[in-house]
Amino acid sequence: MDIHEALYTTRMMRRLRPEPIPLDVQARILDAAVRAPNGGNTQRWHFLAVDDPALKSELAQLFRQGRALEYEKFAAGTGPMVAPAPGADPTRHDETMRRIKGSGDYLADHFEEVPLLLFVFAIDDLGGANIYPAIWSALLAARAEGVGGVMTMVLRNFNDRVNELLGVPVEEGWTMSAMLALGYPRGRWGVAANRRPVQEVSSRNHWGTPFGVDVPQPLWPHDYLAPDLATVG
Ligand SMILES: Cc1cc2nc3c(=O)[nH]c(=O)nc-3n(C[C@H](O)[C@H](O)[C@H](O)COP(=O)(O)O)c2cc1C
């Protein structure tokens, strides 16, 4: 798959089919993930794949409880999902949240059917900086395999219980950075289009000075900014 197609179409997919992800596919996803940059190449990461139905069922209860807690925070006007970036359109944010809630409800209701839960643990992930490259590589590699999913931190509301269920050696310093719910998506892949354009979120040399080029629409699949090859040389 073309790298730009992967970059532009790796959306969060929350409606997943129950078919298992073959082991060789799982291996390719993780083998790509462990190539990711990480500070000092210390590789203090561990990927714990959960596909046992009994475990998934216990985790599903926790996931639904954790999600309810997150939405309570949201309703009370707290938590990370509440405020859009300064200057962003609050109506669009409301609409985005409505759509996330819709597909998130599906995920919560069908959590037991998700074929693979990939728990990502790290020691001192530097606020996520030391582990998100690997997580994103895993999601991109999954995309190349036709596997979709969503990254969630909801289960961190119950870290102790999750660590106990999964037998995590917490005394060594491991903590859960995120969990990926992975599977073959029910829906179709599309460009992550509901993003504020480059010129609205970038500047040059001084905060607020124009970046210098407008990008009113995604540059994949048609990069209309690229020089016309017919007129070059
Ligand atoms: C740190 C982080 C935490 C996230 N947590 C959740 C989550 O708990 N539940 C969920 O459904 N999506 C979660 N997401 C996915 C975002 O909601 C998603 O990336 C965003 O809405 C944009 O949608 P798109 O990637 O499909 O374009 C998370 C993403 C990140 C980076």
TrEMBL record:
Superkingdom as given in the UniProt entry: Bacteria
Coiled coil keyword on record: no
Single GO term (MF): oxidoreductase activity
Keywords of the record: Flavoprotein, FMN, Oxidoreductase
Pfam families per UniProt: Nitroreductase (PF00881)
Residue stretches making up the Nitroreductase domain: 10-184
Signal peptide range in chain numbering: none
PANTHER family found in the cross-reference section: IODOTYROSINE DEIODINASE 1, NADPH NITROREDUCTASE
Full protein name: Nitroreductase
Organism of derivation: Mycolicibacter sinensis (strain JDM601)
